[in-house]
Amino acid sequence: MDIRLDGISHSYDDFEVMRDISLHIESGQIVCIVGPSGCGKSTLLRFIGGLERPSKGRVYQLGEPPEGCLNPLTYIFQDFALLPWRSVAGNISLVLEDHGIRGARAKGIIDDVLARTKLSEFGNALPKQLSGGMKQRVAIARALAVNPAVMLMDEPLSALDAQTRELLMDDLVDLWVRQPFTAVYVTHNLAEAVRLGHKVVVLSRRPGQIREVVEIDKPLQERNFGDPELDAQQKHLWELMRDEARAADAELINV
Ligand SMILES: Nc1ncnc2c1ncn2[C@@H]1O[C@H](COP(=O)(O)OP(=O)(O)OP(=O)(O)O)[C@@H](O)[C@H]1O
After folding, report:
1. 40 Cα: distance to centroid of ligand 1 (angstroms)
2. What ipTM score was computed for the predicted complex, to two decimals?
3. Residue 230 belongs to domain with CATH number
4. Is residue 38 lining ligand 1, measured as CB closer than 6 Å?
5. How far, in Å, CA of 110 to CA of 98, rounded?
């Protein structure tokens, strides 16, 4: 299933947040959205997820979700959002219980997503026993359990330290290479964007408008840490963003 955004504009009362955003999110691709603070990235994700409606424009879902999809648009948040009293497997089974899936069928799905996220050994652990990186892998496993058409990822790695972020990026690349998924991935971190994005959408400061869509052709599995080609892409993104970020920063200070 593809997603098409057509002329999305939005204001909260007189406060204009974004203007005329059109974008095609193709099935099997990771689309990263970057832009200065307050430019409307999370708001755009809420429009795609159907949690809120834009003042103007439309979000289209094109084609059918994958077979066995329980929830076409599934969020992954920065703060993991795990239930502390449920085990890792219990947190994943919760989203299946919501769809009446229990017993052997649920176990089959849980075993599969735990294996895909390298968590097979940790099904009985409680969230408090896990590191931040492991918790986020559980949240990713839980999202995969519903076989979503599109994962909506809002700063999924930003609560993690730098080394854990690197490891999780490797994990996300492995996961995608083994079985491509579709994601809209909001981040402040340009290194993440060039490592994971097939497309990187650069938004201007508020009201967020698309400044450029940078396509990165290099296959995900060939994008290594310190790759000069990626460094050049990252530099280009930063050049696009620097003035916008500075202006956005000044705007916040002068409110
Ligand atoms: N429900 C709301 N009512 C009023 N204003 C809102 C609401 N939600 C968001 N905003 C404002 O809209 C603007 C865009 O917010 P949003 O969270 O989408 O930006 P962002 O690009 O994700 O920011 P950040 O990078 O800092 O997370 C901000 O100025 C925010 O304060």
Report:
1. 5
2. 0.96
3. 3.40.50.300
4. yes
5. 14
Digit-coded pLDDT (tens) for 160-172: 888 888 888 998 9
For residue 40, the enclosing domain spans 1-65+190-255
Sheet order of strands, 56-62 included: 15-25, 2-12, 56-62
Q: Name 242's Cβ contacts closer than 8 Å, sequence gap at least 6.
A: none
pTM score of the predicted model: 0.93
Domains in the chain: how many in total? 1
Cβ contacts of 110 within 8 Å, gap of 6 or more: 89, 92, 93, 96, 123, 145
**Among candidates 119, 118, 123, 122, which has minimal Cα distance to 107?**
123
How far, in Å, from the CA of 110 to the mean position of ligand 1? Answer: 35
Average pLDDT over residues 232-238: 94
Cα–Cα dist 98/163, whole Å: 35
Tokens of 221: 């599995």
